[in-house]
Amino acid sequence: MQRVFSGIQPSGIPTLGNYLGAIRNWIKMQDDHDCIWCVVDLHAITVWQNPAELRQQTLEMTAVLLACGLDASKHILFLQSAVHAHARLAWIFNCIARLGWLNRMTQFKDKAGKDRENASAGLYVYPNLMAADIHAYHATRVPVGDDQRQHLELANDIAQKFNHDYGVDFFPNIEPMILGPAARVMSLRDGTKKMSKSDPSDQSRINLSDDADTIALKIRRAKTDPEPLPSEVAGLENRPEARNLVGIYAALTDTDHAAVLRDHGGAGFGTFKQVLTDLVVSKLSPIAAETERLLKDPDLLIQTLRIGAARAAEIADPIVAETERLVGFIGMQER
Ligand code: AQP
């Protein structure tokens, strides 16, 4: 079975974007892949996190993943900071990746914004740590949202340069898996910006913990234009907000934009928002209820993460030790 790796930052409550772009696909892959799922807290601190909130968000993220259907007994679910192989390999990759490569990363530009000089060095080398996350397990398949495509290309560049520089064939090529009509869910307030759990506006996103009333209100207030829905996909051009709502509907019903427009073309947003609300509530309510139940027993969540970390380290430690040997480190812990 091919080994899959993917991660999610505990930088807030996961959103509908995280669910449709990543988590839902993780669940679908569990039957025929060997999966490693990581709550990437090292990545989360590349921007400021209040320590108490980070701890709580880490537990909430773990609970949400389990509530969505992730099977931690069959696969591996763990915390990134608990397996030191990630940081060890990331340092080596910091020395492999070229500044020119990192300078092209659009996520850094988006997140650093205008105040680039004040961004953390960690945010700049974030893609190198992400490459280490994957390569520490020799994972070959990575299900992510469309926003992460560029980072995966960089992870492949790093692997190739490492293999070339050290004259080995050690790190395999990664195949990105970017699935479905909602591979990129956009903000409810601005259809040109991605929906993010750390967006300052809570109205811009649907959180997986939102109750039915909150979901209804957010969808009712979602930015749209005055025209009714078109009947053809071409009619969505230059209408990012309409495209986004149609894309969400398509993803949640496992169809595509064309099928949604066949059924709802000509509808005004008042009507379409109502059917969309009913759909989102029916899909997310069971997840919110199960998350709440799991959060009542934080010790069990921590124990699940502890078992996951031990199993993850069993795979990653020998791979990273071998990387260090190839680089020329003497490797005291292995003696
Ligand atoms: N809007 C989105 N649409 C589709 N997929 C998305 N993902 C994130 N946002 C969307 C996918 O979710 C996975 C986990 O993402 P992450 O938490 O590691 O980081 P991120 O991409 O930076 O997600 P956020 O929600 O925007 O977090 P913050 O606000 O903390 O930066 C990834 O596979 C991602 O593609």
**Structural domain count:** 2
Mean pLDDT, all residues:
95
Low-confidence stretches: none
Please give the largest β-sheet: 3 strands, parallel
Supply the CATH architecture of the largest domain. Answer: 3-Layer(aba) Sandwich
- Ions, cofactors, ligands: which are bound? adenosine-5'-tetraphosphate
Q: CATH homologous superfamily name of the largest domain?
A: HUPs
Q: What sort of overall outline do the alpha carbons produce when their principal axes are compared?
A: globular
Which CATH C-level class of the largest domain is it? Answer: Alpha Beta
Q: Estimate the helix proportion, in percent.
A: 40-55%
Give the radius of gyration: 21 Å
The class by helix and strand makeup works out as: mainly alpha
Roughly what fraction of the amino acids lie in strands?
A: 5-15%
Total helix count? 14
- How many extended strands? 5
Measured between the Cα atoms of the first and last residue, the distance is 32 Å
Biggest sheet strand order reads 1-2-3
Order of helices and strands: EHEHHEHHHHHEHEHHHHH
